[in-house]
Amino acid sequence: MTKSSGFTLIELLVVVAILGIISAIGIISYNGYVAGAKKKAVENIMQQIALGQTEYYSGEQTYYSTKSGSTTCDPDSSSSKSIEDELLGETDSISDDLGYNICTVVVNTNNEKYRIIAKEITPSSSPKKFCLNGKGFQDATKC
């Protein structure tokens, strides 16, 4: 009987399978973390826009809107750029790395004067969308 000092093929396959499972769990967790961090960053920028709206109102006696005459808008890169220019001091706060576009509309109803709407930039058919209004952050279906 000969004695071998190595791993069998089955032992190596088990180790590779375990490493594959651990890395798959890690990638899923990391992607969830990145998505959550991007959403929190967008919420912070939307609060900065709300402060910009207050300053804009004090100078112009009206709130800034990326789409006049409507109570809703569809965020795109041009609306994000105009918000940066008018409300955020021409900073590059709403970059493509953020993964969202933002727009604003004037509403003038009971609890809200304006809405700030953010929409995820994705190739999928149902991107995430939410807004900030007089009632706080909400899913876009409630805005």
Overview of the structural elements:
With 143 residues, this protein is of the alpha+beta class. The chain has one domain (10-142). 44% of the residues lie in helices and 16% in strands. It has a four-stranded antiparallel β-sheet with strand order 1-2-3-4. The mean pLDDT is 87.
Separation of the first and last Cα atoms: 77 Å
Strand order of the largest sheet: 1-2-3-4
Report the count of strand segments: 4
Radius of gyration: 24 Å
Spell the H/E element sequence: HHEEEE
Contiguous low-pLDDT stretches (5 residues minimum) are none
Q: What's the number of helices?
A: 2
Topology (elements, then pairings):
Layout: H1 9-60, H2 77-87, E1 100-106, E2 114-120, E3 129-133, E4 136-139
Antiparallel strand pairs: 1-2, 2-3, 3-4
Keywords:
143 residues, alpha+beta, 4-stranded antiparallel beta sheet, 2 helices, 4 strands, elongated
In short:
The chain has 143 residues and is of the alpha+beta class. Strands 1-2-3-4 form a 4-stranded antiparallel beta sheet.
